[in-house]
Amino acid sequence: MAQPTYSQPPENHNGNRRELELFLLRLMLFALPLLLAAVPSFTILAWSGEAFRDLQPILQQSLNTNRGLIGFAWNEQNYPWMKHQALLMLPRQDVLAVGSSRVLQFRREMFLCPFWNAGYSILTTSDFSTFLSLLPADRHPRILLISLDQWMFNSAWIAESGHTTPDRWTNNPSNNLRTGLRLLPDVLADVARGRIEITPLLQHRPDAPWGLNAWQNAKGFRPDGSFAYGRQVQQRLTSDPRTPDFQFAGTLRRIAGGSDRFQFGDTPDQQALSSLQAFLRTCSDLNIHVVAFLPPFADTVSSALQKSGRHQYLELLPTALQQVFTNTSHELHCFPTLASLGADDSEAIDGFHAGEKATLRQLLQMLQQGSALHQCCSTEQLQRDLAAAPNALEVYPR
Amino acid sequence: MLFNSFEFAVFLPVMFFACWYACGNSWRMQNVVLLAGSLVFYGWWDPRFLALMLFSAVLDFTVSNLIHSTQHPVARKALLGCSMVINFGILAVFKYCNFFISSINDALALAGFSPAAARLDLVLPVGISFYTFQTVSASIDVYRRQLQPTRNLIAWLAFITFFPQLVAGPIERAGHLLPQFLGSRRFSMTAAIDGCRQALWGLFKKVVIADNCAALAGQAFENSDTASATALLAGIFLFTIQIYCDFSGYSDIATGVARLFGFSLMQNFAFPYFSRDIAEFWRRWHISLSTWFRDYVYLPLGGSRCSKPRMIRNTMAVFLISGLWHGANWTFPAWGLINALWFLPLQLSSSVRRFEPFPPRAPLLPQPREALHIITTFLITMLSWTFFRATSLTQATQILLRIFTLRSGTSLPVPSHVWILVAAFLTAEWIQRGRTHALEFPDNGPPRWTRWLICYTVIFLLLKFGGEQQDFIYFQF
Fold first, then answer.
1. Are residues B129 and B154 in the same domain?
2. N or C: which end of chain B has fewer CB within 10 A?
3. A12/B contact by beta carbon, under 8 A
């Protein structure tokens, strides 16, 4: 194919300044509505710390001053990184709570030794090993308190939840530009619907909130890594129909549909059990004592799971786990329902999250069963705390 | 610097104002600014490799001028040979060295010997395959007396390093793009506005479609040994969409951005997934590369005007080299070979279609026969991509085996919004297939407010459904 030569003069002419200015004017006109729509959302996101801001200095400040509430409404992907980063910033802890959101009600006040809650960082049993491998040896705790969510052993849920990589804990996603941009339309829609109030954002707050959930609902992570449910606690105590998972309706729907953590399953996933076994071996090698527990469901939820007839793996799970823990120096405590703790459904935040008071009951039962945690807890003090609990969901000050 | 990054969002307006305002009407000054900007753009990734690119560019500048000034055929041939050996030598070292070492080691291991050499710790310079082909083609054109070399080094360097198409094409020919650097450029509002729309559509393809598909396709291929047949099929389909949107999205952004600076780049993709056979697909896919191989490999080997065995050899050679160009792994030549096997029956039966753009007013619905051909070609292409995406030939074979034996296994949870977005994207491309991109509007098209509304919708989708940021696939080539 013959290529043209360029001996002939090019067709282009001198730049056309007028066309250029007209183009810029048109571009500005086009961009104006976009800017008008984006500026309020951007301001709210940046001001509240929800997006476009780096979480690292805030986290450092919160840990140094022991003050601050970090709670994101949308950017929950910040949490695994935040928990891992906090452990690198903090000195070595004697007791470290690790797991999903179901370990988050363990608080520093419950322990006499240095304690930190790294909950909300784990999805599957293999994550425990990865998480531990990302901690330097001088940050390894003496005791690991881990929650074994029942669905961690459900093959269908494992397949759907996908495979996690170390980036989840090591990459700081907080000031990711794309994440922030993605939220602009959502924030605008929520402002229009009245779901985001501007006034609280302008008030001075002693709890130093960071993130929209912390600002709007006083919901977020405390400096000890535990989670404050904020406004949701009040809603739950007053039986407000706006409470998330009101009367456990959402959880019961999931159970009936076999979705979102409540997928159907016959037998516990063998690979998940093997991963747990490997993790326990690693902990033994590292001289870390593991205190594991199966967290309770609300009694209503537990009955629904039994009645469904399609979640049989739950019945087989305690025995399967006992076998994993046999011949190890580690502990396993099973709390199938709130009733097994001497509590009732009023002590549940929602269908599968026990409140602070029920969590304290779990700790007391562990201690009664001879847990190694007794080195770091005063049973008498904890019992006094339980007796003085102000309501069914809280024990310690927010 | 990635097109889909914050840095580029700052870089582009700075370059625009520098070129059109700071340089006045001086195209020479504009070339200096474009060259400086392009070096910053490339050096943002790793400034060490600027020297390599500049060396390659200066080499071909010198060689092409020497070839032009020499009449002695042997000297001309020697000069061209020198350029090709050095350029392809550099490419071979950076891109294929470890591949050759691994292949030799594997062969030795099979024969029971110990490895001959250790792998080298080399970083593949971004865009090396693209700019190497661009500079070499200019020297070949001068050698063939189809092109006069320029003596303006700045214009030449600005042409080779032109930032919109530097790292992932289109692979421009000197005969088309270089003249645009050798004279004043006119700012056209119509071209600039259409360029903005084309870049917006490219960004949509990359950020919304490709990036969303990437994560899911990756999941399917990573779990290929346990995934069900339907999950793998969905994964391959999503990769098929991803690679097209990723690469053609880059070309659209490149072309659109170039138009803002008064340049016109060649069309690199012409709606390839609406092709009616594999030959047409290759006329519409990565046009700048396929025409490069046609002009510099296929035709010099004899093309199709020779005996059938030679024609088969030529076709196989082009597809194998094209496969190898895409990556240093046996999966890529395999992918090329599979395409050659699909292509050859058409060529042998002389039913290879010539490239014809879709008519501007193409019917909304295809004829049943046409639809059947399009779907069949799409499925063939999809299965071929398995080899392109797989990490090894074994993995690719196992995936296809699992699909064809309808194996059960884990599913691939594809969110419904991804299916909806992909369907909407394919529909938009189908409706607009008679144009150069999906956001191109004819003069007598919809009123301005409708066009703006369409663009606002695309921007909204960009913000709302943008996937996790991924590198452009073709950066690794």
1. yes
2. N
3. yes
